[in-house]
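Q: What does the assembled structure look like for these inputs?
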Amino acid sequence: MSVLSFPRIYMRGHISWDPATGNNNDYINTYAAGAAALDYSILEAQNPPITPENYRTTFRDWATRVKYRETSNPAFYVPGEWNHFGSHATSFVDYNDKVTLVTGGVLPNGQPAASTDPLLNAPIQIEGDVFGDAPSEARLVDNNPIAFWTSQIFFKRLTVGKGDIAINGDCRYRMHSRWFNGNRNVLLRSAGVASVIWQTGIPREALTITNTGNSPLLASLAEAMDAPGAKGLMLRFCSYFTLYNQNGIFNDFTPQPRLALDAAPDSPEAKAYYEQLGEWYRQALANQIPLFANPAYSAVVGSIGVWNDGELATAPTGRYLVPVKPATPLSTAASAPALAATVPAGIRRVERGLAVQASSSSSSITALLGPAVAQEDYSRNLLSIDLSDATPEATLNKDKYDFGPLTVGVVKDGAFTSIGTINYAATADAPGYDKAAYEASAGIVDLPFDPKFAELLQQGQLVVRQQDTDILAERTLSADSDDRNTYIDQGCEEAIRIAVYRRGKPVEKGVRVMVVQYSYVNWDSNLVGPDDTDAPLRFLNGEVTVVKSTNPGQCAQACIVETDDTGIATLQVQANHQGFATCFFRPLEPGEPLPSPYPQPNQNGYSTEAPEQENYQTSHFVDIRVMPFDDYKPAEFAKLWNESYDSAKAWQYVYNEILGVYDMLFPIMLNYMPLGERARVEAAIGQLLVLVQQPYQQASTIYMPITRDLSRGKRKVLEMWGSLVRRQYPPQPIQP
Amino acid sequence: MRRGWWLAGPLCAVGLAFSTATLAASDNPFAILENSDQASKQVASDANRFAWDVFVALNTPTAPNGVLPWENLRQTSTVYLPNGAKPPAWGQPVPPPPASVTEQAQAIGMDMNQPFNNLDSMVQADGLPLKDKWNKYTRYQILMSQYALDYIIDNTLYNVNGQQAFAAKGVNAAFPAPAFEVKTSWIFIGKDKALRDELAAKYVIANTYYEIIDADGNRTGTYDVGWGAMTGMHVMSKALPEWVWMTFENVNNPAYTQTSLTVPIPDNVQALNKEYQQKLAGSVLANYQLDGTQTTFNGPPLVLANSQIESAFQHASSCISCHATSAYSTQNGYFNYALQAGTGGITYPVGDSILQSLNGYTQFDYAWSLKRASRVPN
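A:
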């Protein structure tokens, strides 16, 4: 089932990303993420130094001034980066002719929805919690702001259509970026090179379907969601082809910064861009122009279908195909110009750890595909493969690379049997993967197969070949978790549920899953060893053991947990030290020896040189932010107050210990609650106390702070201070 | 600028034409509100017309000096004094504006015969700011009538200590029926005479100033002085037990501030606006509109908002419901009317269900201005 089954609804359009970039810039680490504080080890080294004593008057100007990085990847930049006034808002684009819409669908009988179906052209949107009297926007938030693999979309409601044709669904599971494919769009800048998959499942009871307009497509979806085994609705989409500096194109915002795609990071053009951007930032901070957003925009294709029992809400479930060998574009393909002809010099570079693996000359261009998932329907003799994250674009017109016909087959006992072909351009008897086909069916190809292959398909390994080269191959055992990005407070425990599948079906009881932990400090990752007392997490269950790393002489701590009779393995962890952990897990076949983890994950994704190395593209992992260990702060604040009854001292503590970092890194708050002005924060204390409460951290799109890095200790201090404000600072002792 | 002379003429005529109550007692321009028996009857008859008559009365000079009647009300800056000091009674002299204010005013040629309005607040009802066209924060001011001031002084509600003691008794406050308060919102023009002249054709202009508060909340003793353009006016009258809630705003606000009214004005109110605006033609008051009048919790109208004072939650704004939460608990302090919406949102009270949340609080009879009080130092 899932979106790979029928009925299926297709969507296409764009999505906007408006993250504040001051806390996750690629050049200079102003943010000590583990402690959720300004990083004075960096800031005090600036000229002039930015110190705890002067940051309120020095940081903002410094963050808008052009700097130059002289190291391995020279670049001009401003510390506030490309979107200093970001609000973390994200939404599907609905601007002039750039509208995100339902574009098609497939009925339960496998036939395309009629072009007259009233659901077609219905707008799609995600929105956030109510702020005052209207929905706020959904939010893009990184679990680890330094990382590129921990993004989340917090939203409150999904809406498709309106009026007499509408789906309204309340969020139960926020979305997480998965299958980070850094080889996707090598022509683009920064994270534009990458694509990711997003997915959410909405239970039937949280859905309202209105179909008085009589859409057969919507009626069939509603009926399918009510069938036995169905849980609700699934939305999955791929975001790709991300463009920056699009004001005036995807919106009507001003100013409209521009930087040519072929401008090298250390070019005069880049310098001029940042000088202008910084000048606008300073003008806005001086109230000469409004604070302005400069969002990025990704193209989107997606599908809506039925979410069924046994399927994760937020991760694709099915037969998991991962890249194994790069594919080679046909050099003569007229429809896909050769890379070298279109990629300007200097555009291939490593940025934020993204490595473009395409080589520099057209004659030797190869490209690894991204992961895919497949599902077979033996009642229809149809194999559906979601290639939405897999096939790269070759041009700025989003034309796909032409790898020629791709053969889908099964390997059993070492023998390959072809069961069908996917053409570049779709034909009457074969699906396609070119731009037109990709956009029409959200990257999903439906491949008919001869019933005689059914048994083979059930027993063998799925592969996708270019000529005689396997470019995608099924990983027999796969695993994933809806607890993809988790936050744990000091001293707290959390259960991480890992669903394990064999060829897309939940495994039996007793399948082992090996978990290893990597700890992250800024941009460095470290495999946690058995004696690492500073590791973010402690494993509380399973068999905790020691395995050898691939690095001679290095050992790693591993935890072996086993699946229950539903195919779920539960990992119990406890916060051990503030910071960031990514736990990679590998399901193991019976008797399979424990594998050796690598000292660091491969940030570039799957590598043919080290296919077993942990990576953020094809590996299975969860991210856990262990919140700052600030439980001592409430007692510290109470002592300060009880010894002074001085409201000024209380404010100084609240500002310098809690609010100051947000005041510096998230200037958009000047439009709402200027965090550096005591009188304004006190005036808005009612709002603040509602918006910082702990339950809001888990789901609210207007939680303060949006970045969700407020520790339990700091929250308690804010509540204590808020109580003083509400009572006008009574000269009475308070308790922590 | 002697705004009084050009303003007074046509408005006096209009006022006389509209309502005998408005200007008949010319020695008391507040009679329309303070003659509470008659006021309550007028409200029962036509609350919106009553509101317009009040607005005209409050904004129509009754003396040659051109002072607007509402400017003779007591500004809260002279009621809720630093350190919770007892304010002067009605009729007693209040401290004049600081010397630096008058010096700056004289330097730019402001009319020193006009009152100076202390725009001592910079946040809207939800505590959030609003900016004008020039990216400067809009500002606010609350004023009260003699009856309101007397009640506050008589019950020692002018400081937090007195409010706590009042709340400890557990008896709800009850202002007298003639009491009323006014809240005004402003574009602070400052010293730009050209801008003043531009806005003077569209807005009520007044002498204004405010003390600059530093980032740590400290008074600096320095003042920003200049002209202000009145963007909005709330009037709350105790003529009814649950007060009468009237709100006006300038029709030019969308062009000069970063917000606009999104709650539709009912047809009957629009018709009344047209009637009054036509009769006020030639006066800046013709550029104001009544957004609505509330007399009951559950309406109509259920919601009532002023774009300048409740910009971010207009469709969740109810004057009467929000002010009903003016209440104090000796344990929790002032009631928090920022409410949780659903599982992750924030909203504000609408309707009468909020009254159930006030258990444990002593109600201050809808008067949120009390929140401006200071604490008496030890």
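Residues 647-665 of chain A form the longest helix (19 residues).
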